[in-house]
Design goal:
Elements (H helix, E strand, L loop, with lengths): L2 H24 L6 E6 L5 E6 H25 L3 H6 L1 H26 L6 H19 L14 H5 L1 H28 L4 H27 L5
Antiparallel strand pairs: 1-2
Amino acid sequence: MSNTALVKWGLAASLCIAVGGAIVASRLPTDTQLPIHWNASGDIDGYADKWLALMTAPLLSAFITLVLYGSTRIDPRQDNINRSAPFIKMMLFALIGLFALIQVVIASYGLGIHLQAQRIIMGSCAAMFLITGNYLPKTRPNFFFGIRTPWTLSNDEIWVKTHRLAGYATVAAGVVILGISLLGPTGRDTLHLEIGVAVAAGIVPIIYSYLLWRALPNR
């Protein structure tokens, strides 16, 4: 799939999310308020007009699609962008899938179905970790995607080794977060634990890239 085809797919998917939201909104009373934010305990602490609530996800999805496309066009290392295409594609698919799921959660409240938002959203984030983690090692040095530290950008071998570890760390974090989301209790402590696992998965490769750089004889 070319970059142009990718942006067309992303915008088409965003439009589908918007149409689904519009259908739900048109069937709800004019003054309907839908949830748009949940606190760390999983309780709703923010509402918005039905149209704002149901159009936010597709608009963000379209915006991210355009930003991603623009990034691939202006990166000076086009050859490496092309070689990183599998990761870029899967990242966009995963993000749009996440927005679609958030749309379903919000719309469900308007239809009288109260889903466990924290469990569903964190579970979907875990799935995104599993997907992108498998594709992280396929990236090559560029300025927009992947673990972009001074050390990975200074040496292609460090980039490859760092992203191989990052792939394992991201998949491992996805497995742990998915298990917690499916089997653990919901609430503030659980959310903090899941966030901690995700942050650790991001910090470890950064430290590893620095250590690899430190070990270079000609740094």
